[in-house]
Queue: 2 jobs
Job 1
Amino acid sequence: MKSGKDKCLSVHFEPMGQKVEVQQGESILDAAHKANIYLSSICGGDGYCGKCKVVVDKGHYQSRSTNLLTPDELAQDMVLACQTKILSDMIVTVPKRHGLEAGHILAASDVSECRQMKRQLKGPAFAIDPVVRKIFLKMSAPTVHDHTADHERLYLAIRDTLDAPIIQTGFRVLQTLSSVMKKSSYQVTATVGQRGGTLEVVEVQAGDQSGRNYGVAIDLGTTTVVAHLVDLITGKVLDKEATYNSQINFGEDYIRRIIYAEEHDAFDQLQDRIVQDVNDLLTTIAARQCIGLSDITACMVAGNTAMIHFLLNLDPTRIRREPYVASADFVPPIRAAEAGIQINKRGLMYCFPSVAAYVGGDIVAGVLATGLNESEGLCLLVDIGTNGEVVLGNRDWMMCASSSAGPAFEGSGVKHGMRAVKGAIEQFRMSSTRRITVRTIGNGHPVGLCGSGLLDTLAELYYRGVIDRTGRFLDIPDKRLIEGDEGLQFQLVAPDGEHPEVVITQIDINNLIRSKAGVFAAIRVLMRATEISPGDLDAVYLAGGFGNFLNIQHALRIGMLPDVSLEKVWFVGNTSIMGANAALLSHQALNVSQQIAQSMTYVDLMSDPSYMEEFIRASFLPHTDLSLFPSIQVKQAESANQE
Amino acid sequence: MPIPELVQTHAGSVSRVTLGATKEQGGTRTHTVTIGGAASVVYGGLPEKAGDRPLIAMDVLDTRPDDWPESLSQSFDDVMDSPGKWAAKCVECGADLICLVFDGIHPDKGDKTAADAVAATREVLGAVGVPLILWGCENADKDNQVMPKVSEAAKGENCLIGIVEQDNYKAITAVALADGHNLITGAPLDINIGKQVNILVTDMGFPAERIVTYQSTGALGYGIEYAYSIGERQRLAALSGDKMMAMPAICNVGFEAWRAKEAKLADAPGWGDVAARGPMWEATTAICLLQAGADIIRLRHPKSVAIVKNFIDEIW
């Protein structure tokens, strides 16, 4: 009973060679979603970002007119995927620019490999007491003198080993308990997990299985998902893997994704995507380490509030509407399988608690990892992700805020921006004669810029007089400064036979300045509210997936961080995953994270009248008010004297 | 017990800018004028700290305006085709400065050439002895094309030229520096952007002591409170010692006030006589902004000039 309109059509995507069935009239972007092909789409399909350009090689389509395509592009049959309806079978070529090719990205060696980190962060001193442990119990068999039932016998044995006032057992475990105990002559391995104040008997196996117990820590980011496999017995991180969050097809930021899900009733679809991403990571790691997924008994997730909602399919819609409330800030431990996470069928999943709709468990994990909540002196934690979150405080009090900084330093919204993967420029230097040297991750050919490279580039372009203090290109006689498709751009790496050039455009620079201004404005609002000056700070922790060689001096030079002396600033990398690792290994750490989330005061910048003002003041290099940056003034004076 | 005298002192003051150059100074003006210097808020401190008297600049356009209401244009109807004669009449009305506005070069308002603008400049320089303000058409491309020629034609006259904005400051700043003029930095009612423009032009080597700032003005009933609070904040920043906010300020009152329907609508019996209403609207706007700390007020109607001058005499 198919009407003409509902005709099934097939769309071929090149160069992936993927084929997908769609209904007539669906957009190419919809088709790409179905085929799980990433098309860059910042606006989430509204047709105003112009990022989802594809070439229609063959087939009929109907496209809404747009001024986002040049005459040249139109001549090549280039269209905006979101604005183009499919009318016949079709072959579509996805241009290389869409960048995020399928497959896994390299997990950039993070944090723990950072030299500075090791010196500073000893990590909170928690004894190894994993949230889920396996204990081998040797019990004596019942006799005429000892007719304690099997179940109670098990409890007694557990209590001999652990301090567990309240224990509970699942019905399914109970059903098989006796046969397992009898079969193994009362020598069993009990897997017990913490659920709040209760210890749950998750599984009972015959014999001694206690030598293999693994957990996974997940950093559930808006742009990237990172997993660490942790040996719950030794406490060692065995392996790491990262992938892009495939929800990115539905919008680059989570607000867009919530809107998409609402408009298309696609909450299940969004959950499937993220669950699939996590499962892909788990299977990859498990296979690499020759570990069965059933040996993974615990999963610890740190993510922003919206991502946790997507993962658990909780209603996230009110996160984006006043008064901005989440469905749950404190999610109780659940069975991972209930959310579709493929670890041990009865394994437990824990989510870090959120503070508010815009300050999530990733930040709580960051506080835990840096030990800010135990510090005597005042500390500032700045986490630059898709949003820029800031925590200020010490062991007595904590305040936090979130600025919608935008994902520029994650490489999103920047023409040649990319994550910290092989080939990303992570270090950028420009000499006084404007000669450029770069260092890339994995020493690959430079193909784009990751966070640390972008930060370097911004600082160096400013320092070497290529851009002015608003970030605009100055009129300098340099062949590398040319008019590109999106206005002025500066060539950082020249093209060679195989590799295209790497440039930074005026729009990129403006986005980066907006990002850093958002972050700095958030810092200023918190510091002003508490009447704290930079000199009062004992430590500033800069977190985020920037790359390995973040130049802190550059972060200060562009005015992203308050003007404190260099030795007080620590680049700490991905603190979200670090916190998740810590909580996986220590039940006490998990409890502390609950306390952290409860004791943080959230400052809503959107309703703070001074935020916008601070933002404009900070939208300048390094800042409109130079008196906030005395050491930069001194340095400029010094360099002026030398020249 | 004697009442102690409480005088608030401030760390900073508004910088002083002198406009115009006499023959000895290399120009052709009959005299120079100085603005700025205030070391207190308006009417809020010792008289000797009040700084120089604010000045009135009257607008002269390079082309006959077709959108002025009759109640305004009738004062100048006979001279509007000649910027020189128009300027001379303004000086008779009491203008301290002439603000020559190059509306006619705007692509949508006549698209006159640089040669036309230079001719108008020369004509006004020849007709009056007061210092000049040279105000572009606020179309960035056209201003960058024409204003350098205008600047060159007035070289040595120590004029006040502008405006430069965040998106477009380099060309005019460079010529003002080369031709020895003073510069107007503009911002859209945003004190931070205003400061940023000041920093940008001083980064180019332009002396801070030769800058006058301009924030888009709001007329009475049309956002005057924004303009007032910006003016007040700028003065307070100057007093606190912020060198990048210590410049004198200019307000474009005439243009804004005469856009208000209350100022120009003739057929509104309940509102009173339009001949008095327009100048009152303009004068009220001006007086309000003077109290916020404006140093130069651009006006259009002779009657409002008289009212505002009277006010300045009373206060300063």
Job 2
Amino acid sequence: MATIELRDIRKSYADVAVIHGISLTVDDGSFVVLVGPSGCGKSTLLRMIAGLEEITGGELAIDGKVANHEGAADRGLAMVFQSYALYPHMTVYQNMSFGLENTRMPKDEIDRRVRRAAEQLRITDYLKRRPKALSGGQRQRVAIGRAIVREPKAFLFDEPLSNLDAELRVAMRKELAALHREIRATMVYVTHDQVEAMTLADKIVVINAGRVEQSGAPLDLYNRPANRFVAGFIGSPKMNMLEGALAERVAGGVVIGLDGGHRLVLPFDVPGLAPGTRVTLGVRPEHVDIAGREASGALPASVDINEQLGGETYLYCTLAGQEQVTVHQPGQRAVRHGDSVGLTIRTASIHLFAPDGSVVAHGADHAPADALAVAAAH
Amino acid sequence: MTTETAASTTGRGRAPQKGVVMGFLTRRRGGKRLHWTDWATWAYLAFGILLMFGPIVWLLLSSFKTQAGLQEFPPTFLPLSQVTVEVEGSPRPLPLFRVTMEDGSVRELAEVRRIGIVSTMIDPADPDERISVPIEAREPIRAFQLATENYTTPLEQFDFGRYLWNSVFVTVIATMITLVINSMAAFALSIYEFKGRNLAMGFIISTLMIPITIVLVPTYVVVASLGMVNSLWGVIIPGAATPTGVFLLRQYMLTLPKELIEAARMDKASEWQIYWRIVLPLSLPALAVLAIFSIMWRWNDFLWPLIVLNQTEVYTLQLGLNAFQGELNTQWNYVLAMTVVTLLPVALVFAFLQRFITTGIASSGMK
């Protein structure tokens, strides 16, 4: 088990910089998920930790020891690849024992470890098969088993679930979480799927264009996104972004003039923003409520699509001057395409972003949980 | 695994059913009557078979003809030889002829001697009566007969067994060396990324443009100064590294998933282990192709062994064959028979290894 520390890690190919200085600490025994859109550099970062890519700048320390120039084999880490990368000409047993044979471990110890890992992952019956004869989920287990038997300092996962179908992905996700609880190993996990990140991580690191946007516990990122990118990336469906400008200051609050003509009164002041400044008002679909069209304080909108899943309902509504607003509500809603509705927003769930994307205020810091933002006529 | 693939695997396990084969062979385009494309297809295929197998069959049949049979004109297709009979009072068997007598009747007579255009013959049933017959009136009686001495004589008298052994030795050892060193070069040129990698590859490929005749003398000088003249190693070593082989293997190794190599690195495999335990087994199809090539090149190689080897003890089969071809007299019956012997191993190798050409096992372990 180990602590991994990244200090201002940089990577460039020829003259093109892809990682612009990332600092990060992976605590001993923790599960850290690197998440970001494809091409953001998260896999490159993981490969640099693994020793498969050279580090252009900065320092990588494993257990306090600088490991920049150690080879992949000497870092004591194990990696699970996206494609599993099982050796096709070897049986499952050989796939798992190969790494141990290379360390000249005694045969009976190898056998003991392989069998224990196989039992843990429920692949004992397949030990004599070739990877070709296994299903996707079984291959995935073998790939994880190959990492486990090595008893590495840390596990590195590169989008390990992306080749599985949706159902299997959920099952494997739970198994991974259980595995981590069981062996308490340090794990670094790369994914573009924020659901995996939210469910597995002790700590999420959101990466975009080679920079860390925010890192922290999953719910911290969800509740208090540091910027517009994180707000949009974490949470599904995406957070609604209402564009507008700070219209005026009133007693104990501000009025936001939304594009499209509606005005929203927020019961807290936003210091530092002059009236007329553009702002983005972010609110998650689950924090938007449906009320009657004439309900006081509601934003009038019309329903485009109503997706009823039985237990929950997704409404896609048109609000004048704004992009489509998503509403996520539990239970079933009897509204149809074309119906007029009123949307109410709880103040505590509002996030205000400045034009540069940074957060200006979280509603939760200023308002009680059930207060509504009041839509005022203009 | 879908039902489709399951069905095809079970089908492959058994021998194809007779009905399927016949159905395939008699498949035609135009319903009941033959379409003209059916005729064209059959004609084309028949021509192809004739073109490919005609010479081989001709060689095979001719290798069983006697020296005299070979020089006959017009040539016969089957190995025929004249029938002889033992006749009382004659020291050797006499050739049998079918003779048209003056009265028009036809008799089978044995020839005792021939003087000018008159042949003296006897009836094997009645050896005392001598009959004079003009030679135009007789016609030899011939029957199908295999001249197996074409095979046995060279193998016993000319030490063809030794040539065979030399050829096998050269072919096997040279192919093994070729596979090992070519795959090592290909490994370096495909798995490692370094400056000038493509330049090095281009340089290797460009040596294909130099004909062997140009490097013949310099190579001989090198071989001679290393004392390898009249040694089989002198034949094996100079041709062990082939640009074709490096190119073939490298292109195949480039298709191996990079993640496999990286996984092996994470598994603490040394570079040698990556080569020997990961890359080589996965390159088996390409290695098999190169092995077939190498075996054919080495087995049929003539020019280079001719230059390096000039003592009969180290002759390879091809040189041995050449020995039958004298300045004045060529023993065609031996040449042909031994040509068949030299053809057999290559044909067998091809029959057994060719399935590897189409087998791809490298991709199956990935997603």
